[in-house]
Amino acid sequence: MNIKYLSLFLLSFICLFGKAQMQPQVSIGLFEDQSASLSTDRIQDLYQKGKFTTLSSPSFNPGYTESIFWLAIKPEALPIGKEWLLTVDNSHVNILDYYHSDSLGNLKLLYQTGDFFLFKQRPYPEFTNFAFPLQKTGGLYFLKVDKRKESLQAPMRIISYRDLAETNMNANLINGLLSGIIIMMIFFSLVLWISTRKRLYLYYGLYITALLLWIWSNKGLGFEYLWPNSSFFPSRARPVMLLLNIIFSIQFLQLFIGQTKKSYLYYPNKVLQLVGFVFLLLILYPAPYENSVVTVKYAQNILTIIASLQSLLIIASAVEQIWKGVKEAKFYLAAILVLALSGLAEQLYMYGSIMLNYYVAQFALLGGLAVEAAILLYGLAQKFNRYRKERETLLFEKSEQQKILTHTIVDVQEKERKMFADRLHDEIGSMLSVIGIHLSALKKNTPLPPANHQDKLQQADEMLGQVADTVRTMSHQISPVTIEKLGFVKALENLVQTVNKSEKLYVELVCMGFEQIDNYPSNYLNNIYRIIQELLQNMIKHAEATNGIIQLIEHDDVVVIMAEDNGKGLTQERLENPSGSGMNSIFSKVDYLQGKIEIETPGNGTLINIEIPNQNIQTAINE
Known about the structure:
CATH architecture of the largest domain: Up-down Bundle
Number of helices: 17
């Protein structure tokens, strides 16, 4: 996606419809009713006395006001042969009363409309903005403009019905194109969210959607197409969408540029987000508009302050992350600047400060949003590609680690097999050979004294007992069958008792949990048993400890094994490479169970802490 070419395309498309439409020179007078109480007769009288000020251009922008404004339009200069209209290119005037005064001074109310009334109540509901009929002959027209306790900008045009219809058709085409592009990008972000389950893409969609709805509300498109039968929401739509935009934009910003709690701007952004949410609830409170907080000047000032703070915090946050070398922050800053410049141009047009082509003025902000959304989506795509590459690298590294782990497990198993083979050959084999010698001596015909005969039988019997004990011990080491016969905890207790009987080491066992082990895989319990078994062997063989404690604790999400002894501990070299200190088998089993191990040598002795994910949870879920 080439953002430069997309921007040029959108600008060229908008300007394609930009032929200038010459407006007839019609006299428009303006009078401000500061008391907001003058009657129509009084207004006519003031007009006759010349109290109306003639506008130099068809626009007036008082800003925040508590007055009612009256416009007097003299249609005498209109060319004959066309159906002429007066349009107000601001879709958010609360009340508009349109009067006609004939040659005798009789004043008649023709239309009453505004965003306090249903959309279908407009004189020409086929147009988004307000349009009122003008006839060349037959007196004078008065337009009462009431937007008290709000900010008022009223750019106007004198235009023929045919030209307005053409303009409206072109505007709908541009709006459909730009909105379609934006909606496509929102849909693409939702696809990314569904495929990755990363909240970043969801908040991108929510942020761009809130911005799009705010622009639609600002242009009156929301009133025309989304809530045409509401008299409550149209006057609240713009602040509601603005606040939703603030809330979602902060969330998206922090995820997109990676702003964490370490940033000085993280909590100010969160506070502003909370303030925006509270103010949103106040605006949506179902009170009459005249009594609602949104009608007071202070509420509008608060909205202005919130929006200004948001802009400053966004720019500061982006600059902060750019300084740290975050590439996404550059995309974000570029996108925000495009939208800001577009909004500034449109706002200056609304205030009458600059003259723009009608289409550029009407769709600068929507076009800016399309470019902003494209820039951000391009940044998201780059981020997604990096995420995919990092994931592939991680999977490759994990695969390599798994290979190493598999080799380690195989090596450990081979060493264990060799150890068992050596014990079978050296211990059991030698004892069986001695037993065979004794039995052979008994078979010979050489007479033996009864005492010698009895001694040889007793020695053979004792050695057979040793063979049986050794075979039992080795079988337990190969496969802890006592877990199946006695249960997991009892098997551990028997293991510790066996160690304590040797009188070389006294170990205390503390076991918390494991009352219900039915959901545990047998391999999982066997590996934990093996780990504890090898910890005990290390205490005896390597640590040369005399006292130790083994704690086994079952938590909801993790199983903890803590082993502590008073042995000679580990040297610094062994502490830096503990897997080479006779603990290879333990490390391989912990890695196999996806756990982690920590070793400390606080003076004398060793403290080993092992945390293994509780597979009881996953088993229960799978079932």
